[in-house]
Structure formats: structure tokens, C-alpha cells
Amino acid sequence: MSDGGDLVELAKRRGFFLQSAGAYGGVSGFYTFGPSGAALKQNIEDTWRDRFTIQEGNMEVDAPTVMPEPVFEASGHLDGFDDMLVECPDCGESHRADHIVEDNTDIEEAESIPVAEVEELIAEYELVCPTCGTGLAGQAIEDFNLMFETNIGPGSADPGYLRPETAQGIFIEFPQLAEYARNQLPFGVTQIGRAYRNEISPRKSLLRVREFTQAELELFVDPEEDEPALEAVADVTAPFYPAADQEADEGQPYEATIREVVDEGVVGKPWIAYYLGVAKQWYESIGVDMDRFRFRQHLSGERAHYAADCWDAEAEVDGDWIELGGFAYRSDYDLSKHDSYSDEEFTVFKQYDEPITVERATVDPDMSYLGPEFGGSAGAVADALEALAERDPDAFDGSEVVVEVDGESHAVPVEKTNFGVEEVTESGEHITPHVVEPSLGIDRALYTALDHSYREDEVDGEHRSYLTLPAAVAPTTVGVFPLMDRDGMGEYAREVVDELRGAGLAVTYDDSGAIGRRYRRQDEVGTPFCVTVDYATLGEARDDEGESAAPDTVTVRERDTTAQKRVPVADLPETLTALRDGERTFDDL
Ligand code: ATP
Q1: Where is the composition biased (Basic and acidic residues) (predicted)?
Q2: Ligand 1 centre from 260 Cα, in Å?
Q3: Chain centroid to CA 521: how far?
Q4: Is 193's C-beta closer than 6 angstroms to any atom of ligand 1?
Q5: Can you tell me which atom of ligand 1 is nearest the CA of 322?
Q6: What is the DSSP letter of 173?
Q7: Which atom of ligand 1 approaches the CA of 214 most closely?
Q8: 476-588 CATH, one of 3.50.50.60, 3.40.50.800, 3.90.1170.30, 3.40.1010.20
Q9: Which H or E run includes 441?
Q10: I want to staple 277 with a disulfide (CB 3.0 to 4.6 A). Which of 1, 236, 448, 458 is the partner?
Q11: Residue nearest (by alpha carbon) to ligand 1 atom 25
């Protein structure tokens, strides 16, 4: 574990990430990933894609980051995607009121507390501005919408927004995506991409930024029929922290298997439990320490009204529990919204096993009566009669039936509607799928993997800091060094580099400085293996170096143990690939 400062310093020095636009004073909440960070991020995204898209048989899309206003009217972001802003009356700095409460009291998840109560808490605890120390009691809290607004095209007639989550890019294309999935539920659509939130006070380095990467899966299921293949993750264990335990005095997270939390009803929706199992395996595979990880259920005030169940994956970083990802059962909320706000249907046609016969009410209004009676409204009255027959056939029981058109009531004798009931055969029905959404943040996962893999120790009397990143995500898999760049060792090592790169390995070459320093440099960026070409490789025995001739072999050094083994150069591509992919261990060599 690092203290946050060590990690941020290492991240900048070794090219993981740095605050962007430093030459212009830097801008809060925006980070540039350097060479090591960009490679690590790409590898983390690749493993996510492999696990959540390829292995699950889902489809991936890549939608625009700017979207027109109606999308966010329908999604609810325009009205409700707000944080609580409190402004300091003295220095003018803006802060998140709920964070001030959380940081200075024992209260957790203050985001779920109503605004008026947060104002009272600020007064009661005499909370002050984190920047200048001025008391904030009596300051009004405002709702601040987190979306970045822009204009599409010249002028301001067409407002657009940078997407605050990748999900809407999937939902709005549902009608077409359902076609690609041949209208067969369940089907899942993933997306990895940038999201933007104008956070009131970005903080904790990558953990709260204004531009970040999300990896989201929207799984569309038939709520009546579809079940996950729970067996695949039934034995996965993780710490669970249900809402009831959070609210109990002595409540603590406890270890359980996915099977147990489903059987005991702790996680109410098996689909959510399934993806908690998948996610636990994935977080572990990228280097998140499972002793500092848990699944926490949302408290009832925290959960969106439409979400039937919601859990967060959380990790402990610098003494705080932070949200790495959210897992929500969103019911039919998103698709119903877009269905009613747009011109398209957001449903799938569900075929029955056997066609069924049902009674259907029909009308065939007598237009020779409706025309003279209702004039220009006659067509609309006929449509209203048709809709009413479908909705409420009993309305036609009396001698006349009343429909509303443009706020006006029109009475029509039932005999003029030609109301009747016919038997029809139906092969299926249109249903609105429910959505299961694992929504993971890549930046927080990356930061946590770095923080949890940071170690310090002593090697040969020298201090070293190193990252125990799993080989599958480490920015570089192999460092290749000549013992010295002379007597042909440099040329030999460069040939090894070409060979390994040709085999698809991420390789770095380094011949500058003492060999120990070069190992330290690779340790600090988490390179799991280093290969050294020495005199023995060239077939020369050097008594003063303690080496005997071992032609065309090199030493391979493992980062965490610093143990070294000699491996034939011819075997290197295969051996190192197997080590990276977890198919062999260093001990087996
Ligand atoms: P928080 O409560 O921490 O603001 P959230 O509940 O609003 O997060 P979601 O809307 O569920 O977050 O977004 C899904 C994921 O996206 C989060 O779990 C997180 O990993 C990531 N994320 C959200 N906001 C940010 C941010 N400002 N910076 C970095 N990552 C973020």
C-alpha cells in the first residue's frame, strides 16, 4: 500500500498519469495518461472486453460522446443529474455539500440525504469551507447539474451535451440492436468509452475527475423467463455488506459465495449476483487486493426509484472506501422512457411457444353518422373509439359511449360504433425488456490496482519500490538488457527484443546504467520479467563474473521474488507468453 502522495509522485515520474495542461497551470479533473499509464489502461480495458464482452457472448458498440438534448430529457439527466453545491461566502470556492458532511462527521452516503437536512447538518456540526475555514452555516445548497453543455452546429438552437455515462448511447439504439440480436432475449451490449461530468470539486487524483472512461454492459432480459448461468460463478466468494448490516449497530461485511447470497435472498436479483461474481474475478485479475474489496448494497435512500436492487463494488484506498463500479437492476425504466419520448418502439416481439386465441374488441364507426355529427373532429373521434375499445371494452356496455378529443367530450350511440368482439390468434406479444447494468469505471480500477500493488522492500541492501501488477495488465511484459552494451551483447539483446516483439509481447530495451538500476526502473513500472544477455549467452565463460559458458541462454528474473533462472533463447517467446497469460508459473521453469 502506498500513501496517496507516493503513488501520485511515482505515477508522474514513471509515466502513468499526470494532471494535464501543466504548462498552462493545469486544470482540475483532467489527466493525461503517460506511456506506462496508457498501456496499463489499454490492457485493463482489453481484459474487461475479454471477460464482459467476448466470454459472455455480448456485442460491443462505440457511440458518440456528444448527444442531443432530447436524449437527456428522456433519460432524466437534464432534470435530475445534480450534485449538492455549497459556495463559501468568503473565498467563493464551490464544494460538494454532501462530501463536507461525510469528511467531517461519521455520516456516510450523505448524497442520499435530502438537501434541507444537509443544510441543517452543516449548521449543527458547524462545518467550514475546506479551502479557507469560513463557517458554512446558513449557506444555501444549490442543485448543480453535472453535464457539460455544448451546441451542435453554429448558433445555440441545437443544444447538446457531453454524455455523462456511456449507457445512453446503447439505450437509444435499442431498436436496431435488438434486430442485430434477432430479437432474442437475453442479449447484452457493451461499450468502453469516455464519459464527462463537471464535478464540483474533483479530488483524489484519478478517483474523481471530469473526464473518465467507463466500461458498461447493458443486458436486456425477459424478466419472466431469463435466468443467468449462475453455476459458472456460484463458488466465487466475496465480502458482502447488505443494507441491513450497514444500518445495524454492529453490522460488518461478511464473506459469502454467490450461491449463498442468492439462496439467502441477500442479493435479490440473480442476474446482479451473477455479474458480481464475474466482476469479482475481473477485479482480482487486474490486481485489486481482495482483502480491501467488498460489495456494498445501496441503502434505500441511495437507490434510484426504478432500481429494484443496486450494489457497488468498493475498494479501500488511502483509508476510504471508494466506489469502483455499480450493479443495478434497472427494470424497464430506460427503454420505457425512450419508448415514450421518441418515435420508435423500444420493445421486442416475444413469440409464444404455441399460438393462443384471444378475444379482441373491435369497432368500425359509421362515418356517415360521425361526419355530419362531429365535422372536422370525426376522424379523431373514430380513432379515440378504437383506442377505447382496446383499452376498456366495458365502456361499450351502455347505449352510448363517451370519448375525449382535444379536451372535449363527445357522446356516440353504441350502435353507430359497430362494436363487436372477435376471436383472434396471436403468435406472441411485444414486451419491454428489463435492464441489468454493470457500470464500471476504468480510471478508478486502474488507480486502485496501482495503489494495491505498490510495495517497498530492500534488495541487496538497497531500497526498492515496485508494483506487483499482474503480468496480464502490466504496461510492459519484459525488460531486455545486455549486461553491458559491448562485445556483441547489445546486438544480441536487440535481436532478442525483435524476436519477442514479433511474438506479440510488450518489450522494453534498456542498456543505460548499472544493471541493478535497470531492474529497479522496471520494478517501479511493474514489469514482471527481465531478460539479461550476458557473456554466458555469447558462449563465453568469465571467471571474474562467476559465469560459465551457457551459449544462447539468458537469465530471466521475476520481479516480485527477484529470483533468476536461465532459459534457452529459443524458448523465450513461448515461455514468456505462457507466463504472461498465466499458463505457466515462474516456479515451473
Ligand atoms: P460517485 O457517487 O462516486 O460520484 P456514481 O455513483 O455517480 O459515482 P456511476 O454513475 O454509478 O457513479 O458511474 C459508474 C462508475 O463510473 C463509477 O463506479 C466510477 O467508477 C465511475 N465514475 C463515476 N464518476 C466518476 C468520476 N467523476 N471520476 C472517475 N470515475 C467516475
Answers
A1: 580-589
A2: 28
A3: 32
A4: no
A5: 3
A6: T
A7: 16
A8: 3.40.50.800
A9: strand 434-441
A10: 236
A11: 208
The CB of 439 under 6 Å from ligand 1? The reply is: yes
CATH code 3.30.40.230 region(s) in the chain = 82-145
* Residue-level pLDDT at 3: 64
Fold of 82-145: Herpes Virus-1 (3.30.40)
Q: How does pLDDT run across 538-553, given as a tens digit for each residue?
A: 998 776 667 788 899 9
Ligand 1 centroid distance, CA of 441 (Å): 6
Single-letter code of the amino acid located at 483 = L
Reply yes or no on whether the pLDDT at 533 is more than 80.
Answer: yes
CA of 178 to the centre of ligand 1 (A): 28
Q: Compute the average pLDDT of residues 379-404.
A: 94
In 349-477, where does DSSP find H-type helix? 367-374, 378-391, 442-453
325 C-beta closer than 6 A to ligand 1: yes
Q: How far apart are CA 438 and CA 446, in angstroms?
A: 17
Over residues 41-66, the mean pLDDT reads 98
Residue nearest ligand 1's atom 19 by CA = 441
Amino acid identity of residue 315, one-letter, is A
Running DSSP on this structure, what letter comes out for residue 542?
A: B
Question: Are 38 and 50 spatial neighbours (Cβ–Cβ below 8 Å)?
Answer: no
How far apart are alpha carbons 529 and 507 in whole angstroms?
Answer: 10
Determine the Cα–Cα distance for residues 358 and 424; give it in Å rounded to an integer.
5
What is the spatial distance between Cα 136 and Cα 104, in angstroms, rounded to a whole number? 13
pTM score: 0.89
Please give the DSSP secondary-structure letter assigned to residue 53: I
Instruction: Say how many Å lie between the CA of residue 165 and the centre of ligand 1.
Output: 9
Instruction: Quote the radius of gyration of the chain (alpha carbons, Å).
Output: 31
Q: Rounded to whole angstroms, how far apart are CA atoms 448 and 315?
A: 7
